[in-house]
Amino acid sequence: MLDRITARPRHWAILFFGSLLLVTSLAIYLSSNKQPIEELPPNMSEVLEALEATDFHNALIPPLSPPPDWEQYTLQKGDRLSLLWADKWHLPLATLYTLLDNKEGKRYLNRVQPGQHIEWLASRDGQLLALRLWQSRAEGSEWLRESQGFSFRNLTSQREVKLIRLEGTLNGMLVNSLQNMPEISGQEGTIATALDRHLPLRRDARDGDTFSLLIEQEWLSNDPTPYSTRLIAFDYTGKRMQIRAARHQDGRFYTPDGVSLIPPFDRIPLAQRYRISSRFNLYRRHPITGRVQPHYGTDFATPTGTHVRAPADGRVVRSQWHPFGGNYIVIDHGQGFKTRYLHLLRSQVKPGQDVKRGQLIGQTGNTGRSTGPHLHYELHINGRPVDSMRAELPSVEKLKGSSLKEFLTQSQQLFSGLDGHIRLEDLALLLPEPN
């Protein structure tokens, strides 16, 4: 009995110093990994929080870290706000119910009409930070996340749209080539990130390449800076790539003849369907600690060694080991689409490698912090994890029918503005409300 009692303090001492060693090792690992593609926690406090997390993704996605821009949509006939909220915008329905509890603002949300413009800013972990609903271009409502719930106010500022045409020559990184353009002061990073989503700049960009960009900015009349800056058309001419494309109403970019810059996407990265053992859930409660720890992916229960295949064309940006995720892969598919695969037995691709839809990239396993063989699969759109089983995915390689006709009409206008053949003030009046 005495041996058992005295053994317990030694046991906890070993756990304490072992945990301290793990924290130190993980901090060294994170600080030494300087790849720019995936943001890692920059300080020790987030590393310590990650050690308490169940899943690897919690260590990589700081809470309430907003993406660079607002998202926007114009309500269409037949739209239901609750369905858009969850299925298209990937926002928690509980947040919508919270907004509807606000006595001042609920009447606006309960009476949405086709043609109304709605804008929102969400964190990378899917939490709503701000919402604006416009009854007209000059009148709207705004909800802002505060420490205790949401505040509400009426807006009476005129929304203004301004178009900017930029031309430049690449000299080093794109963001550096945009720094001496006063029209976009402070917005260089947003624009560079937007173009990087559509072009393989890290691989094929070379000094001396030329580019033309058509930028749309939205302002509130009493604000000194734009709240939204969007790329709507571009022309890039370089030694290793020549690409010209415009933004369609679906939010994606297409070449002048309607070919998508992002190929069709498979729903799951496996040759056959397997049982889903854990679904995407922003409010998953840890079975042991009882704490709410979001699950940002879909877990497929598979036998060890099951082949994992790329759901779409893309480029491997990471293929390595992580203490929580085990062997893992990250693929960038362009236009803000990125996928991640955790707990693999082995990876069969290398960073920088281009992959095709359906190509074998790895085998499922039980590595890292895992309780059994499975694949943890994540889909990220514009920096935010979304439910891969419900997200709206690219489905066509080229527009057809009425969609193609609509795109050709609008893109001709955008390319005319890009080439300087029409006054941007006149072009702004021709463009439809942004979706």
UniProtKB/TrEMBL annotation:
Residues 165-281 form the Csd3-like second N-terminal domain. The chain crosses the membrane at residues 12-30. It comes from the Bacteria. This is Subfamily M23B unassigned peptidase. InterPro entries: Cell_wall_metabolism_enzyme, Csd3_N2, Dup_hybrid_motif, M23ase_b-sheet_dom. The keyword rRNA-binding does not apply. Keywords: Hydrolase, Membrane, Metal-binding, Metalloprotease, Protease, Transmembrane, Transmembrane helix, Zinc. PANTHER family: MUREIN DD-ENDOPEPTIDASE MEPM, PEPTIDASE-RELATED. It is found in: Cell envelope. It holds the Pfam family Csd3_N2. Its cofactor is Zn(2+). Residues 294-387 form the M23ase beta-sheet core domain.
